[in-house]
Amino acid sequence: MSSTELALARAAHQGRRYRLGVMGGTFDPIHHGHLVAASEVASKFGLDEVVFVPTGQPWQKRDRVVSLAEDRYLMTVIATASNPRFSVSRVDIDREGDTYTVDTLTDLRRERGDDTDLFFITGADALRQILTWRGAERLFELAHFVGVTRPGVPLTSKDLSHLPSDAVTLLEVPALAISSTDCRDRVRAQQPIWYLVPDGIVQYIAKRGLYPVPGVGVPDDRS
Ligand SMILES: Nc1ncnc2c1ncn2[C@@H]1O[C@H](COP(=O)(O)OP(=O)(O)OP(=O)(O)O)[C@@H](O)[C@H]1O
Ligand SMILES: O=C(O)c1ccc[n+]([C@@H]2O[C@H](COP(=O)([O-])O)[C@@H](O)[C@H]2O)c1
C-alpha cells in the first residue's frame, strides 16, 4: 500500500474527507519558497498530502524560454522526495497543449474521487492574476484557494474583495525572497544557489547543464 493509499484509508477510517493540497508551478527550478509555502499550508489546513504539479506549457510565460518539462518534473521529484506528505503529479505535463488549472483540478478530482477536498496553493503574485486564468469562474467550485504571502508582492484581504470570500484564504508564511528567475540568473552569472534550492537541485542543474550562459554555454564550475 502506498503512503497515499494508507493516508486515504486512515482518513476514511476516521470518517473524514481526505484533504489534498495542490501546488502548481513552472518550477524552473523548484526552490525553498515553494517548499515552505506547501509545508505551511499543509500544517495550517491539516492537509493529508500536498501534490506538486509542474506545468506542461505555461501559456502566460510564452515570452520566455522554459526548461523541458521532464527536467522540471525530475527536479520537483528530487526536491520533494524526503517529505512523506509530498508527492508529484504528471497530469499537466502529460496533457497536450497549454496548461490550465481548471484542467489540473478536474483531472485530480477524477483521479482522487469525491471523498477528497482540494486546496490549491498559490503565491500572492499568481493569486492577483487569477481572474485572467481560463475558466476562472469554475475554479472556485473545484477547490479552495490558499494564497500565500510573498516578499515584494503586497496583498491584503482588500485586494481579494473581488474573489468569492468563502473560496479563498490568505495565509502569511515565512518570507523567503527567492524566485526561480533569480536562481536562473544566478546560475548564468556563476553565482551560488546553495540554500536557495535543495542541494539535489544544485547538483541536477549542474549535471544537466541547465541555464547556460547565453552565447557561452555551460560554465565549468557551478559550485
Ligand atoms: N518565494 C515564494 N514565496 C511564496 N510563494 C511563492 C514563492 N515563489 C513562488 N511562489 C508561488 O509558487 C507558485 C509557482 O511559482 P513559479 O514556479 O512560477 O516560481 P517563481 O519563483 O514565481 O518563478 P519565476 O521567477 O520563473 O516566475 C506560484 O503560485 C508562485 O506565486
Ligand atoms: O489556468 C490558467 O489559465 C493559468 C494561468 C497561469 C497560471 N496558472 C497556474 O498557476 C500556477 C503557477 O503558475 P506559474 O506560471 O506562476 O508558475 C500553475 O499551476 C499554473 O498552471 C494557471
From TrEMBL:
Entry keyword Nucleotidyltransferase: yes
Pathway assigned in UniProt: Cofactor biosynthesis; NAD(+) biosynthesis; deamido-NAD(+) from nicotinate D-ribonucleotide: step 1/1
Pfam families: CTP_transf_like
Gene Ontology MF term list: nicotinate-nucleotide adenylyltransferase activity
Full protein name: Probable nicotinate-nucleotide adenylyltransferase
Family annotation (InterPro entries): Cyt_trans-like (IPR004821), NadD/NMNAT (IPR005248)
Entry's family note: Belongs to the NadD family.
Top class in the EC scheme: transferase
Described purpose of this protein according to its UniProt entry: Catalyzes the reversible adenylation of nicotinate mononucleotide (NaMN) to nicotinic acid adenine dinucleotide (NaAD).
Keyword ATP-binding: yes
Keywords recorded for this protein, A-Z: ATP-binding, NAD, Nucleotide-binding, Nucleotidyltransferase, Pyridine nucleotide biosynthesis, Transferase
Leader sequence segment: none
Annotated EC: 2.7.7.18
